[in-house]
């Protein structure tokens, strides 16, 4: 029994959740009206019952006061009782010996109660009684040596019954009308939702993200439409960015792939002719193989940067409290191992930030690689890290030719390469990755001209409170923070 009793509420809940919003509003409206009518019906019945009962009791008292003086004058045994009218009022006289007299043809009243007998004996002046089983109201009034009683019986066709039937009919009509009104209100109120749903379905089927949803209604409907339009705008921007990334990637891959294909075809054609050794001297063959290796390396770097850039976020690694000086030192060490010709001079202090270590190291490494391409062989890339107010400031300074003023606004754009850099290796993605990492950490990346005439790339990141205690890094060599 307990299991089946527990299943019923769950079934009702599932049934309710499967109903449409329009059906729910209709049911709620009809239920609210039904409850209101029922409460009004109960209150009305009680008020009418009290009023009718009070009127009946007052009428019984008035009739008893008319009969009592006659009984006292003529005597209880001889007083002439009014004939029974056929319905309504009933009378009875209680004699001193406890016997009773009633008019001829009148229905029998319930036996004289103990309390009414005490009134006849003079214990009290009067008594109002109600007999719920028979539906009688009986008023007993002391008269002479006995008492007179006037009674009324509740009529089946009483005003209360007629009122109840009328209220029941009105309640049913109100419930039906409430359901119809609720249905109409739900249809009218949910019309914007229906149009919004149709528009969303149309966008889903056509994949047309440019088709915005018309702004209509007010309040919650307007906010919902605006939210969906904002979502469509974000999807348009995301799809446009993906398309631009694919187009730019295809454009950037075209040149190295073409060069690689031509060199490989040349080697295959000469090998098939058997003239590889005679047509390509050892020096030319070495230079060609070096070019192939460089092109493969460039393609590998470009593919890695495209993969990193296409993720849409910095990485899956979690944010942690870290010393940015350790990140800078690690990036400088990696830069030296990759390109031994790069000379890096560090001037860093311990500055703590909240960030992703691998992403920040990749950004610093890209800054060093970019500076190393431009800095002369006898001039080191200078890296400075310091705390400045509430920010950690990282500066990468090279002694190269600097950046033209026309190129400054687009330095951090994807695949952008200045005219003077097109002959150098690179994909134009390094600084755009730097920009994305810095933005993800709530920082800012800028470019200016350094005091040595080259480019000065500056990164500002929000500083964090260091954990206690912190041991300050000391200078050891040119790769250690100082």
UniProtKB/TrEMBL annotation:
Spans traversing the lipid bilayer: 21-45, 163-186
A Pfam family the protein falls into: HAMP
Membrane topology qualifier: Multi-pass membrane protein
Main location (coarse class): membrane
Domain of life: Bacteria
Record-annotated HAMP domain positions: 187-240
Catalytic activity from the UniProt record: ATP + protein L-histidine = ADP + protein N-phospho-L-histidine
Leading EC class: transferase
GO cellular component, as recorded: plasma membrane
Cofactor(s) required for function per UniProt: Mg(2+); Mn(2+)
Keyword vocabulary terms for this entry: ATP-binding, Cell membrane, Hydrolase, Kinase, Magnesium, Manganese, Membrane, Nucleotide-binding, Phosphoprotein, Protein phosphatase, Stress response, Transferase, Transmembrane, Transmembrane helix, Two-component regulatory system, Virulence
Keyword flag Plastid: no
Gene Ontology terms, MF aspect: ATP binding; phosphoprotein phosphatase activity; phosphorelay sensor kinase activity
EC number of this enzyme: 2.7.13.3
Subcellular location: Cell membrane
Domain Histidine kinase: 248-465
PROSITE patterns (UniProt xref): HAMP (PS50885), HIS_KIN (PS50109)
Protein name per its UniProtKB record: Signal transduction histidine-protein kinase/phosphatase MprB
Biological classification of the source: Bacteria, Bacillati, Actinomycetota, Actinomycetes, Streptosporangiales
């Amino acid at each position: 029994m307990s299991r089946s009793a527990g299943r019923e509420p769950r079934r009702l809940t599932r049934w309710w959740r499967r109903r449409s919003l329009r059906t729910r509003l209709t049911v709620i409206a009809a239920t609210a009206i039904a409850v209101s009518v029922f409460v009004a019906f109960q209150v009305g019945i009680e008020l009418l019952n009290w009023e009718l009962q009070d009127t009946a009791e007052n009428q019984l008292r008035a009739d008893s006061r008319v009969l009592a003086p006659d009984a006292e004058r003529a005597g209880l045994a001889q007083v002439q009782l009014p004939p029974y009218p056929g319905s309504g009022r009933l009378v009875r006289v209680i004699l001193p010996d406890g016997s009773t007299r009633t008019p001829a043809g009148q229905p029998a009243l319930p036996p004289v109660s103990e309390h009414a007998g005490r009134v006849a004996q003079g214990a009290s002046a009067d008594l109002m009684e109600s007999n719920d089983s028979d539906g009688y109201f009986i008023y007993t009034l002391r008269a002479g040596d006995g008492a007179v009683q006037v009674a009324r019986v509740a009529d089946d066709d009483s005003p209360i019954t007629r009122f109840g039937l009328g209220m029941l009919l009105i309640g049913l009509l109100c419930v039906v009308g409430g359901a119809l009104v609720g249905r109409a209100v739900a249809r009218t109120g949910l019309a914007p939702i229906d149009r919004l749903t149709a528009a969303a379905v149309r966008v889903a089927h056509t994949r047309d993200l440019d088709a915005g949803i018309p702004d209509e209604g007010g309040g919650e409907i307007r906010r919902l439409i605006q939210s969906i339009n904002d979502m469509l705008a974000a999807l348009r921007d995301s799809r446009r960015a993906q398309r631009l990334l694919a187009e730019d990637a295809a454009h950037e891959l075209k040149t190295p792939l073409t060069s690689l294909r031509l060199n490989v075809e040349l080697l295959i054609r000469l090998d098939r002719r058997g003239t590889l050794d005679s047509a390509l001297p050892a020096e030319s063959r070495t230079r060609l193989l070096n070019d192939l290796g460089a092109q493969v390396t460039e393609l590998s770097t470009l593919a890695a940067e495209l993969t990193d850039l296409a993720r849409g976020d910095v990485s899956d690694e979690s944010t942690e409290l870290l010393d940015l000086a350790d990140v800078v030192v690690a990036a400088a060490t990696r830069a030296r191992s990759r390109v031994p010709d790069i000379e890096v001079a560090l001037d860093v202090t311990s500055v703590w930030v909240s960030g992703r270590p691998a992403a920040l190291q990749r950004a610093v490494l890209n800054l060093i690689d970019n500076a190393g391409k431009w800095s002369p062989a006898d001039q080191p890339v200078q890296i400075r890290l310091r705390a400045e107010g509430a920010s950690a400031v990282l500066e990468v300074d090279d002694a190269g030719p600097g950046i033209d003023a026309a190129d400054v606004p687009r330095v951090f754009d994807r695949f952008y390469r200045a005219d003077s850099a097109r002959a150098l290796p690179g994909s134009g993605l390094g600084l755009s990755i730097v920009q994305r990492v810095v933005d993800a950490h709530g920082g800012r990346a800028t470019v200016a001209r350094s005091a040595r005439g080259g480019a000065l790339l500056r990164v500002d990141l929000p500083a964090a409170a260091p954990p206690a205690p912190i041991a300050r890094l000391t200078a050891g060599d040119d790769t250690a923070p100082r």
